[in-house]
Design goal:
Blueprint: H1 2-6, H2 10-21, H3 47-57, H4 59-63, H5 82-99, H6 104-113, H7 122-132, H8 139-154, H9 161-168, H10 179-202, H11 213-219, H12 223-238, H13 248-264, H14 269-272, H15 275-291, H16 298-305, H17 310-320, H18 323-334
Helix pairs in contact: 3-6, 5-6, 5-10, 5-12, 6-9, 6-10, 7-15, 9-10, 10-12, 10-13, 11-13, 15-17, 15-18, 16-17
Length: 342
């Protein structure tokens, strides 16, 4: 047996160890449904680790550092961006996956890729594109489009089916096929609710004392305590089960906390007062490129040549912009040069 093990490469040894150490409910690397385009396996990395690395090194991932999470261009260095949110989701998701002996590489790959399709200016940009594009726009579907088509000059990242399924189904209404995908769907919500509370307190929109006592009594009185409560509850209730679940009490408190955030933060003029301007900016960029399609970068023109609709190609370009690139493009295209001195 040892001799047979010694004849295997490092990837194959890791795949064998997964069967020895992971839960029977885990997604094993050597049981993946694979990629749309066959590739020779790596001799070092199992298939989901390879996907994780591809996402981490792609251009869309790097652009997340300049995309809004909640606060539009906040004053201060410590507010979350779409990138820091993504990293927090990945950290929480891996903690749960490790505790439940599920596949950490798959979990992290889904977490790192789940928001690649987000627009500039967060959900304001998403609303704008969904409103003006006849084909509609949803960021989770755009994330899939990024990894399947838009990255690597139109060839995509060729990720495994399981990673793409988790990215596509990370929203509340989604139904991920793997437990790893279900972890990300839940930790996305856990992460953004708690980090948004932290940012809202930093921005003096709410105070810790404003949060209803009936919720803090269940979840905790600090961000750290709330995260500790939520993660422990997921692990405790999901251990040795073919499901990712929480207790009714804790999940109910989390959902009530989400409602509180929508009522007191997500619609607050302090956090969202500039969103109408951001939506108008995104809309005008969309309409400009619809009228001047020839000014799109070459890779988007090639998409149209291959049969992609003009509307979708314009959405692809505008959605991929960072906040500051969108502002710079708007200034370049919409503001006369003679006014730039004012």
């Amino acid at each position: 047996m040892q001799e047979d093990f010694g004849s295997l490469n490092l990837r194959q040894r890791q795949e064998l160890r997964e069967h020895e150490t992971l839960s029977p409910y885990a997604s094993y690397s050597d049981a993946s449904k694979g990629r749309d385009q066959y590739e020779e396996p790596c001799d070092l990395r199992p298939i989901y680790q390879r996907d994780r690395d591809r996402i981490l090194h792609c251009k869309a991932f790097r652009r997340l550092k300049h995309k809004t999470q909640v606060f539009l261009i906040p004053e201060g260095d410590h507010y979350r961006t779409r990138l820091t949110h993504t990293l927090e989701v990945a950290q929480l998701a891996r903690t749960i996956a490790r505790a439940l002996r599920l596949n950490e590489d798959l979990t992290e790959a889904i977490a790192l890729g789940h928001d690649l399709g987000h627009t500039p200016f967060g959900h304001a940009g998403e609303r704008a594109l969904n409103r003006v594009c006849p084909e509609g726009f949803e960021h989770h579907l755009q994330s899939i489009r990024v990894v399947e088509l838009l990255e690597k000059n139109g060839t995509g990242l060729n990720l495994t089916w399981e990673v793409r399924d988790g990215i596509k189904n990370h929203q509340t209404k989604g139904r991920p096929a793997t437990l790893e995908g279900k972890i990300v769907r839940l930790t996305d919500k856990i992460a953004y609710i708690n980090s948004d509370i932290d940012d809202a307190i930093r921005g003096r929109i709410i105070t810790e004392e404003d949060i209803p006592e009936k919720l803090t009594r269940v979840l905790g009185h600090t961000t750290r305590n709330r995260l500790n409560t939520l993660i422990h509850d997921v692990v405790t209730n999901s251990e040795n089960k073919d499901e990712i679940i929480m207790s009714d009490e804790v999940y109910g408190a989390l959902m009530e906390l989400r409602v509180y955030m929508f009522q007191n933060v997500y619609t607050s003029p302090v956090a969202k007062g500039e969103e109408a301007k951001a939506e108008a900016l995104v809309e005008q960029l969309y309409y400009y490129y619809m009228d001047h399609t020839g000014e799109l970068p070459e890779k988007y023109l090639k998409l149209i040549e291959k049969g992609c609709s003009k509307e979708r190609a314009v959405c692809d370009y505008v959605a991929g912009m960072s906040d500051r690139f969108a502002v710079a493009k708007y200034r370049e295209l919409m503001i006369p040069d003679c006014w730039s001195v004012y």
